[in-house]
Amino acid sequence: MGRGFVTSVAHHGVGVRPPRAWEPTTLSLLNAFELRCGGREVSLPVSAQRLVAFVALHGGPLLRVYVAGTLWLHASDERAGASLRSSLWRLNRAGLGIVEATSTHLRLASEVGVDVHRAYELARRLLEGTATEADLDTAEADLRGELLPDWYDDWLVFERERFRQLSLHALEALAERLIAAGRLGRALEVALAALAGEPLRESAHRMLIRVHLAEGNRGEALRQYELCRRLLRDRLGVEPSPQLDELISVSDTE
To answer: Same domain for 42 and 141?
Structure first.
């Protein structure tokens, strides 16, 4: 491995078949933790799951002391280091080459496919305007997940919000591309998905109104406009932005 990294696999547990080089290893962090090797689901202890997820989400290489201090926040440095070594040992016993390690650093093995990484790349293509036609067909499913929703680790708060915000922006960009392509039914589904992700997000309401207007459904557009105004007033005590009013005003003059 480059930079002196070695794969964290040395011993195989009894009855555990180590992955072959050609077998894909995939890590899912959206909606639930799931690790698969060659199509087989691999069960890991919770401590090992947390280590794998942390390294996968933060990129690398990461200092071992940083990983240990974050994952075992309330333990002493010595105890946190011991817990990290124990988690790496558990990965070794499972025969999984998914975390590469030196005496000072850790990183996820480059051949591991991570659903969050794919979703981020897709979101960036949508926001940059470089998404392909194939992206338009698969993007909604890839962007609608929630990052490890049943985990309560403090370090996940920022990562979860980062993914949520980027996915909402990307869903809106996807809806805009679909409107431009005349795929209004799909655009409606995507706009609704963005709105379900954050019902108080005015830009999602505006996108849904745009879909209704593109379909010629002005009554639906006005109903959504009033719903947005009511939600913002009742929940946040604010008025809609001028962009929302302009969207409806322009439609009335056409």
So the answer is: no
